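for the record, two folds in this file. i put them one after another cuz i was lazy. first one right below, seq on top, structure tokens after. the second one comes after a little note so u can tell where it starts
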Amino acid sequence: MPLLFYAVTSIGFLPLLYAITDDLVLIGAGSYYMGQEGIQDDEEPLHYVKVKPFEVDRFEIKIVDWFFIANWAVKNGYTFSDSSSSPWGRPYWYFHDDKDNFPMNRVSWYDAIKWCNAKSEYMGRKPAYFTDNAKTQVYRSGESNIRNTMVDWDSSGYRLPTEEEWERAARGKKHNKNYPWGSYIDGSKANYKESGDPFDDGSAPVGYYNSAQLVVESKYSLNGENEVPEDQFNDYGLYDITGNVSEWCWDWYDENWYSRKNINSSSFGPNYSGSNSGDKYKIHRGGGYKDGPGMDEGKPLRIAFRHVEYPEKSRRSIGFRTVRSFVAEKLWSSSIEFSGAAINWYFLDWFGYYYQTETNWVFHSELGWIYPTGEGSFNNWIYFPKTGWMWTAKFAYPFFFHDEKKSWFLSIQNKKEYGWFESDPKGTLYLWGREYNER
């Protein structure tokens, strides 16, 4: 269900009905051979890996989505580096797409994982990254080299993929191939150095390689103009796995990690602490528009190639996409239980006070008797005796969506009658409160 938002960002005014929707692809539990033999030493040995199910973004994170979440985050205790406020958008010579539709870049590894936490909190999911082993302090500011033990791997929140997850998603169903589509690359398949598209030495709009893209004759093109464009998403329907911007992963880099790690369990990479990580790199994968396919460079556009960069660095050619662990989250898991005489009373920061009975019926302090179900604070179906089932979430409340009537309703608080709603036949409630608040 698409959800519409009204927002202003630091890079300009978003469309009045700007829609931010999750478009993630489920990667089922499975096994594959990770790495590649005979090209780069740190990609060996080829080894068998088992991965738990997870969901991954179909597209790289766009500039417009970065600022939508980042602006909210800054107002709620988050800090980001200065470089992330000025990403490089479309090349100055290209005018056929909005600059905000290009992949986010000039974002450090630290900023990327903080943004993941911010999106989790905004959407009502449990964040994944913390600054303590007890997982009580959400990572929101600074440059903290959090350890593997400070990550809630069972959270439903957004995070960066591990190397194993990234390569599993990138390979799809193909074994021991260089690229998501096979063994060879040309300019009809990805945006890379001298590929013959309109973006040489610049990123392409997210999802541009969809069989309708322009491939042009170029003096320095590597035969891109000789090929017929084809759909270049991979077996799982993921775009821009190869080229455009390289993508941050969770793992620290260790050139000998493939021969050292325990291949019988999921790997989160080496575990360095803040005291011994000063000269260490983080992994990013997929290659970017500055990389070429040549053997003299180690063929850095290959799926198996392990790019590295310091976590505090931000590059125009590095961005990211997010993943989520495929787990169920308890309804309203962030509720706080009252102590003392107020037995069975809870407080939910966005929803208010409610009393939990021994059944699933809940008495809400303003909405009266309701019957909620769903997950976390991001997917809540609530039954109201007078109106039937309605949907809401942390980022939507106090608006509710009535599935049968296919329209939005606004809850009116402080009324004598519990569960009272207002709808607007003209549809102005689709503006998420702007018209309503200005009345």
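(here's the note) second protein begins now
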Amino acid sequence: MNKDLYSALGVDETSSQEELKKAYRKLAKKYHPDANPGDKKAEERFKEISEAYDILGTREKREKYDQIRKGGGDFSWDDAGGQASSSFGGGGLADILRSMFGGGGFGTGGDFGQRRAARHTVVVSVPFTTAALGGTVRANLEMPTMCPVCMGAGGSGEETCSQCGGSGRVQQGQMVMPCPACSGAGNTFKDICSRCHGTGSVISSETMDLNIPAGSDDGSVLRLATPSRKTVMVKLRVNPDKFFRRDGRNVHCTVKITAPQAVLGTKLKIRTLDSKIVLKIHPGTQPGTVLRISGKGVPYRGAKGDQLVHVEVSLPTSLSEEEKINWEKLSGQKA
């Protein structure tokens, strides 16, 4: 389907900024994913109009786009994500807009709640063994989504920001910074939205089962689609384990044995990541000995690490008279 950005919003190039905004809000409300759960076509249409307004809704971007548009060429939206291409020489329209407007390019630089939500990261706690071996974690994901009252605008009665003159940027010394008065939007409002307090987004909550890949480490990030088809980045926070410590594909643990067990040898039942096994302590085991259990570590790319068992020998801190005599006999000293 070939469309230019004005056609995507159902307006023409003579429309005012206010008319553009009204057209966008009307279409955004109609095709918003929250109002059309599971409707793929509505989701694609919402992306299309959001990306169109991302350019046309800002005067400076609109002027640059109009310059490109006057040069001719057809504009099309592909199925992969609403990216636009053109018959202009060189790269497609997405590349042209990316070079002109900066950042990730077409459809990623707007200041509306839905686009901000797409980059939001949610931190989810994961048990140590689940992260190591993989599994499922049920999580409650709280994330920002477009405010349903102001449709992401943040308020009404839009005015050009007096501090930055609508550019969204101010200069501080040698640096150009986002305007503190309008947070880089280039405009302010006479009436701030009472629902989102001017941010353009509200917090929504969704519960879903997360599939944790085996070998996930603390800080790993997963890109997921929620049941309402929102995209969210999930950062894993792996809970520490009382027994295990992780070092790459290997896991470490510590066991304590008594002096007689170290001298005579013994058998201990210890935990592994997926079961319990009997570990043989050989006679004469020294403090600080490290025993390796092959294949009981973290799986990674078809292989597994090992479990390293650190042996500590516990010595008595106080002795009964009988115990003292026995220790003196062992040492060869006279009782």
